[in-house]
Write a structure and sequence with these properties.
By secondary structure, this protein is an alpha/beta fold. It contains 3 helices and 8 strands, in the order ααβββββαβββ. It has a domain of 107 residues: 2-Layer Sandwich (Alpha-Beta Plaits), CATH 3.30.70.
């Protein structure tokens, strides 16, 4: 019996991004984001297409996008091959998802945390043997977290 490769966009989106696969996505995110703790109880899978709020802003296409029960937004992307400026693309997608939450005149307290989960089929960080790496804003010298720690990058 042959199975479709889950690294292919269509298969990845079917496995993790369909309403029928919510339990799989919840289990995966609990394992990756919350170290196996059963923190996420429910989520809503939403359209992963992210047009620019401004007509000249670059459009982005994510593999999976979901809103957790605490209103945190999780964006997931599978990348098979390294590409030029991939690291910048990941940061762009994270910050764009965060910024696109507000419309003109809305207050900043309405912003919800955004977590970017990026799965690569190549080694992104040669300086570590870890399979999962997590990044947040921290003070440069003393490494304490930024007061409003609302952006997180996770790589597998």
């Amino acid at each position: 019996m042959r199975f479709i490769n889950p690294k292919i966009d269509y298969a990845f989106k079917r496995i993790f991004g369909s309403d029928q696969s919510q339990d799989i996505l919840i289990s995966f995110l609990n394992a990756i984001i919350y170290n196996g703790e059963n923190t996420i109880k429910s989520l809503t899978i939403i359209n992963p297409y992210t047009p620019g709020q401004i007509i000249t802003l670059k459009e982005t296409y994510l593999d999976v996008k979901a809103v957790l029960q605490d209103n945190s937004i999780v964006i997931i992307e599978m990348q098979i091959a390294t590409t030029t400026a991939f690291d910048k693309r990941v940061a762009y997608n994270l910050s764009k998802t965060y910024a696109n939450q507000l419309d003109r005149g809305e207050r900043y307290h309405l912003l919800n945390p955004v977590i970017s989960v990026t799965i690569t089929d190549f080694i992104m960080f040669r300086e570590t043997e870890k399979v999962v790496t997590k990044f947040v804003f921290k003070e440069e010298d003393e490494s304490f977290e930024y007061k409003s720690n609302v952006l997180k990058l996770i790589f597998l």
